[in-house]
Amino acid sequence: MIKILIDCHGGDHCPEAPVSGALAALSTFPDLHLILTGDESLLRKELEGKAYDASRLEIVHAPQVIGCEEKPTDAVRLKRDSSMMKAIILLRDREDIAGMVSVGSTGALVTGALVRLGRIPGVIRPAFCPLLPTMDGGIVGICDSGANVEVGSAQLLRQFGIMASLYLEHVYGVESPRVALLNVGKEPEKGDVLHQEAYQLLSQTPSIHFVGNMESRDLLSGKYHVVVADGFSGNVLVKTTEGTALELLKKIKKDIYSRNLYKLGALLMKRMFKEQKEFMNYQNYGGSVLLGTSKVVVKGHGSSKAIAVTKCIEQAYKMQLNQLSAKIEQEISKYEHYDDV
Predict the structure, then answer these.
(1) Within 13 Å and on the Cβ side, how many CA atoms surround 95?
(2) What is the CATH number of the domain that holds 149?
(3) Does the pLDDT of residue 202 top 80, yes or no?
């Protein structure tokens, strides 16, 4: 039995989405056991009238909520009865619990995970790795996308490449994932000293399939499975790509309604438009996993609905099922250990 915690507060659709998403996951994976943290009265209310296996669902009362506007260090220190911190502490203290899912404050989750859970031995810093769909029907992971705004060493970028490559290979079945380094040009000498050093290190890492630098315009091309980046650049890349897709869909919709001829054409292409909308819908791709922590942590988008929460739970379930943390520790140990940067 794989046990996973669900932080049921902090998102736009909480606690409805986490509870509904949890029940859907329970019906999908018979060896899954879920623990919901949050205001028990609210969670019980959400569960009323719904069919589920009560022997595989626990509730831990945690009435406090961490707001996204709160300072992460203060929230971690002062709100031990919050749904997020209760989940993190339980994850740390109970060996039978494999991981957790949260759609709450990103800053508090990262801070809490680092302070309370710690890192996999040998990992310098954990990193977020969200997934985006590619034009050939595949996926691409961007590591890091916000956990490390500043990166002081090329060794850290190499670890991002190793961890994300293992994630794509063992959780999503991508054979020999193609790894690229986000840069301002494709030539090896492009970028600053840090990126030039990272290029050399990634090239000398036999456990990953490094294919060189990638310019941001090629993110969704399907040429790459993993993109290595510092947290600042990676976060900008992900949000710019998501925002561009959303605004483009809005413009297409606006243009369709501008002329009757376009409306007729859209009617004939209704199915295709629906498929494209689902293709670009982030709710279908789960959350951003925090690679490198001692136990599994998955961060869902703050606006996640039930389907997105279910996908996040599936990610955590498969990470544990495939013993990803152990594989990361084993691979990282093959290279030199470096002091924190």
Answers:
(1) 0
(2) 3.40.718.10
(3) yes
Sheet containing 226-228: order of strands: 131-133, 139-143, 226-228, 178-182, 209-214
pLDDT confidence of residue 340: 44
Other CB atoms closer than 10 Å to residue 174's CB: what's the count? 18
Question: Can you give the pLDDT at residue 14?
Answer: 95
202 neighbors 210 (Cβ within 8 angstroms): yes
Torsion of CA 49, 51, 54, 58, to 10 degrees: -70
* Same domain (yes/no): 49, 155: no
User: Within 10 A of 338 (CB to CB), how many other CB atoms are there?
Assistant: 13
> Could you tell me the pLDDT band of residue 222, with boundaries at 50, 70 and 90?
very high
> Tens digits of per-residue pLDDT, 261-290?
888 888 888 888 777 777 777 777 789 999
Taking only the tens place, the pLDDT of each residue in 54-102 is 999 999 999 999 988 889 999 889 999 999 999 999 999 999 999 999 9
List the one residue out of 134, 145, 151, 65 whose CA is nearest residue 110: 145
Whole-number mean pLDDT of the chain? 93
The average pLDDT across 169-196 equals 95
Which residues, 6+ apart, have CB-to-CB distance to 99 below 8 Å?
Answer: 4, 5, 91, 295, 296, 297, 298, 316, 319, 320
Residue 338 belongs to some domain of the structure: no
CB neighbour list of residue 294: distance below 8 Å, 6 or more residues apart: 117, 118, 119, 120, 325
Q: What's the domain count of the chain?
A: 2
CA 249 to chain CA mean position, Å: 24
What span, in angstroms and rounded, lies between the C-alpha atoms of 127 and 235? 11
Same domain for 117 and 176?
no
Beta strands in 292-341 (DSSP E): 296-299
Q: Clarify whether residues 133 and 280 are in a common domain.
A: yes
**Domain containing residue 39:** 1-126+292-323
Q: What is the pLDDT of residue 269?
A: 82
